[in-house]
Design goal:
The protein contains four helices and eight strands, in the order E-E-E-E-H-E-E-E-E-H-H-H. The protein has a four-stranded antiparallel β-sheet. Strands 5-6-7-8 form a four-stranded antiparallel β-sheet, with helices on one face. The longest helix is centred in the C-terminal third of the chain and has 20 residues. The radius of gyration is 17 Å and the shape is globular. The N and C termini lie close together (8 Å). The relative contact order is 0.11.
Length: 172
């Protein structure tokens, strides 16, 4: 592999996340993530295609997230600290979304079963507000996620592609 850089993305006492980026080829960056939570260390590597011009941060995040089986929608403060958001795994046998937001300077985590049609709750409204989303848009996003994750053919394709990409990454 080529030239790279490594840094700690977050370390809040509950979990530590370290990133390492390396130029794998002129068109791909290898992104290696090391997560430590409750003394358990997990790692994974993704390839990020950089062979096209940079259009916007959203465009890059969307391309990277197309296949990656861990999805997140987050809001950070100017120093990079998480404020609110949600995350989930596509390949989970019991699909759940973890949604979080701040309340009285404490992080509130809410686990939601992924269903086709979510019902609006105070927690969803609090998260939506802290994420800076328009009223009603978070429930729309959750319902889209619910329909997608309950499409077993779609989930199977995403998991298979992620496995192939991981296999290719490990070989290079």
């Amino acid at each position: 592999m080529g030239i790279g850089s490594q840094f700690v993305q977050s370390d809040d006492g509950r979990a530590k996340k370290e990133y390492e980026y390396t130029m794998a080829t002129p068109e791909y960056v290898s992104w290696h993530v090391m997560s430590t939570k409750q003394g358990i260390r997990e790692t994974h590597t993704s390839l990020v295609f950089t062979g096209r011009p940079f259009l916007s941060a959203v465009d890059v995040a969307e391309r990277r997230n197309l296949i990656y089986n861990f999805k997140s929608l987050l809001r950070r403060d100017p120093k990079g600290r998480l404020i609110a958001g949600l995350y989930f795994k596509v390949n989970s046998s019991r699909p759940t979304i973890t949604m979080f937001y701040m309340e009285n300077n404490n992080r509130v985590d809410v686990k939601l079963n992924i269903v086709r049609n979510f019902k609006e709750t105070d927690e969803i409204r609090n998260c939506e507000e802290q994420m800076g989303l328009k009223k009603g848009s978070l429930i729309q996003k959750l319902n889209t996620i619910g329909r997608s994750i309950n499409d077993l053919e779609f989930v199977s394709q995403v998991v298979n592609l992620e496995e192939k990409i991981s296999s290719i990454s490990a070989e290079n």
